[in-house]
Amino acid sequence: MGSIFDDVRGEFSKTNNAVIKLILLNVLVFVVVMILYVVFMFSQHQSYFGLIMEQLSLPANFQTFIYRPWTLFTNFFIHQGPFHIFFNMLSLYWFGQIIEEYLGSRRLVGMFILGGLGGGILFLALYNSLPYFQPVLSSATLIGASGAVFAIIVGAATLLPDHTFFVFLIGAVRLKYIAALCIIISMAQLVGPNAGGNLAHLAGALVGFGFIKSLKNGWDWGTPIYAVGDFFQKIFSRKTNLQVPQRARATTTSSNRRFTTSSENASIVIPNQDEIDAILDKISKSGYESLTREEKQKLYKASQQ
C-alpha cells in the first residue's frame, strides 16, 4: 500500500502531467466517497452520507444553490459509480493527452475547469427558467466530470479535427466525427432522466470549441484560471521556501504567438522550413509517436500559418 502512495505522490510532484493528476484527483475523491458510503451503510446512518453528498452535488434549485455556491466546482469531481468515473477518466486520458501535448498542462487544466463550470451554469440556468424542469427542480442535482471531459473532447477535435483514433471493431476514426457523435448522443437524451447531465455535456462542448477558436485568435479563456493557480502556487512556495517551476505559460500577440514550457524554460516559436523538413523526415522514418512534445508543438504551430 505504501508503494501506491509513493507512486501517487511521485506523479503529483512532476510537472507537465496534468492529465494524470486530474485522473488521480478524481479517482482519489471517488475512493473516499465510496468508503464513506460503505461505512455509513453498514452503520445504518445513511442520512449522514446523504448530507455529505448534498454538500458536494450541485442543486438545480437556485435558492438552494446560493447557500452552497462551492458545489458549482465540487460537483464535477464527484461520480455516481465505477462505470461513471471509468468512462469519464478514459476519455480524459485519450483526449487530454492531445491537448497537453500541443497546448501544455495549464491550458488542459483551464479547459477542464471551465468546461465543468460551464456545465454547472447551464444546468442552473435552464432548470430555473424552463417550465419542463419545474416538476423536478427541488430534487435534481448534478455530479460528474462529463461536462469538463466534453470540453476536452471537443477542444481536441477543434484543435486537430483530422487526427485519427483507432476504435475497436471500426478502425481509424477522425476526431471530428467522434466529437460529433458524442454531441448527437447527448442532444438525443436531453429529454429524459439524465437531462441535466446532457445539458452539462453540451455546455462543456461549447466551452471546448470556443476555447480553441479564441486561442487561435489570441485570446486565452483560461487566463483567470491560471491567475488563481499562480496565486495558490505563490502561497505554497512561500510556505515551503522552495522555488516551484511555473507550468506551461503562453504569451500571445496578434503578430507572433509562442508557447513557453516550464520544464525547458524556452519558447516554441514558429519553426523555419528546415526544422519542419527535419520533423517530417523523422515522422517518415520513425512515425509520429517518435516526436518529442516540442516537435509536436512546432509542427502544430507550422500548420496554423
* CATH class category of the largest domain: Mainly Alpha
Q: How many runs of DSSP E, i.e. beta strands?
A: 7
Describe the biggest sheet?
3 strands, antiparallel
Q: State which percent range the strand residues make up.
A: 5-15%
Question: In the CATH classification, which architecture of the largest domain applies?
Answer: Up-down Bundle
- In sequence order, what are the helices and strands, one letter per element? HHHEHHHHEHEEHHHEEEHH
Number of domains: 2
> What is the first-to-last residue Cα distance?
50 Å
With strands numbered from the N-terminus, the spatial order across the biggest sheet is 5-6-7
Mean pLDDT: 84
Secondary structure class reads: mainly alpha
- Helix content range: 55-70%
Unreliable spans:
242-268
CATH topology of the largest domain: Rhomboid-like fold
What is the global morphology?
globular
The total count of helices amounts to: 13
